[in-house]
Amino acid sequence: MTERLDLDTADAPWAYTLVKRIRAARAEGNTAEADRLVAYGRSEGSDALARLIDQITNALDTRDAAVVNGEEMTPFSVSAADEGQLVCDFCAAVNAVVYYEVTEFSINGPGGSFLSGDRFYACPRCRELVDAGDWKGLRNWIGPEQFGLGHRMLVMGFKQNRKGAAVEYEPGTNPEAGR
Questions:
Q1: Contact 112/72 with Cβ under 8 angstroms?
Q2: pLDDT by residue for the chain (179 residues), tens digit each?
């Protein structure tokens, strides 16, 4: 039986904690524990969450290897979404309902740079917090542990480069199609 984590699988910190534990087990060479945690994530989380955890752990492993070798990391995309499905750029929920136009910006870090794109998608809860300017509430919703320097820089870039109000689109449509 897989030990349960004391976190709700709907909360962003659950995935953060699970990824941290998987990576710690791998770093210690404890593949049995890492495999047990991966199995736990698959049994307790959704398929989308399992995809996200796999992608994040692989991306972090790739980043760490690049840093150790003094190389620049190749850009990558992490998404919990199925093909054609949009996710919230703030909390990674798979039910984005609006987007905000932004002037593209980049964030530079030790593993390379990140280009924002010209839209930030938001789920209903994140939209409510963004529209209210409740940045502390957004941080708490995402999870203070997960809201590290990179996430803070992304939100700061969003705030500084946002072009206006949320743009709504019809449910079941993909505003990225045909762009």
A1: yes
A2: 344 445 454 555 677 788 888 889 988 999 999 889 888 887 776 666 777 788 888 888 888 888 888 887 776 666 666 666 788 888 877 778 999 999 999 887 665 677 888 999 999 999 999 999 999 999 888 876 666 777 788 899 999 999 999 999 987 788 887 77
- Give the separation between CA 62 and CA 53, rounded to whole angstroms: 14
CB atoms within 10 A of CB 133: 10
* Cα maximum dimension of the chain: 50
Cα separation, 74 vs 53, in Å, equals: 19
Cα separation, 156 vs 10, in Å, equals 25
Structure tokens at 52: 């996200």
Edge-first strand order for the sheet with 119-122 is 119-122, 98-101, 167-168
Q: How far is CA 32 from CA 12, 22, 46, 97, in A?
A: 25, 10, 22, 40
Cα–Cα dist 58/135, whole Å:
29
E strands, 17-175, in order? 98-101, 106-109, 112-115, 119-122, 167-168
Full-model pTM? 0.60
Amino acid letter for position 136: K
